[in-house]
Prior knowledge:
Blueprint: H1 8-30, H2 35-38, H3 46-68, H4 79-95, H5 105-128, H6 145-167, H7 169-175, H8 182-204, H9 208-231, H10 241-281
Amino acid sequence: MRDDRIYPATRWLAASIVPFLIAAFYILYLRPGETKELFAWEIKAPMSAMMLASAYMGGAYFFGRAVFARRWHHIGMGFLPVTAFASFMGIATLLHLDRFNQGHISFYTWALLYFTTPFLVLGVWLRNRRTDPGTPEAEDFVLPRIARYVIGSAALANLLISLGLFLQPDIMVALWPWSLTALTARVISSMFALQGVFGVCLVLDPRWSAGRILLESQWVSMLFILIALLRTWSTLDQAKPFTWVFVVSLVAILAVIPMLYVYVEMRRRNDYRKDSNTLRRS
């Protein structure tokens, strides 16, 4: 039945994930120098720890909103990017198992999450997606084609970077703004995979109501990444061109998302008022 309802299992899964994300954010963002004692593995570069923490904060925002969302299609778009993120993390864990603090409770928590979450999140999406009517809401807005082209281009760039970090970590380590290991390169690749898959989903489903919450969560994540960059600026290699590509791209995204948000909200409300006035006159 396509009534756009959210199944209880979906809400329960979202609610169960949030505490883990908040706890990981606390360790990685506020105590990045203590990962050897507190986390699943030692992350020596503070920026790597804080970037992962930023992704977790964005995820906590998304799943927190998912718990209280009114309609499935408001949150459904977020489940495939999260599946990609968690899948990359799970594979990276298997490839670098010797790097982890095996025997520590944080490792068991990490392994439990990333060996189960891809299947659980994907399963929830496959089940709950049947309730999506696939049509815009009465006050909705459909992103114009030019916006979808721009988003698609950005998604492709993110996916290429993700594949580079995952498949050729040694090459990407030499280009990256801060020090990486093969493990941290592959972990960071999962964040770019999340961004890329989200962009693809937004191109395929351009309903503003379907992408708004996940877009908000991405902005939250990017904001924390920018703060992390400012806090760890001295550890970045400013002579590398990719350092400035990374910084400029991040600042541009942080500026563009609010502008897009305001533009779409204004257009959406104006279009709805015009349609309402037309109906009243007729």
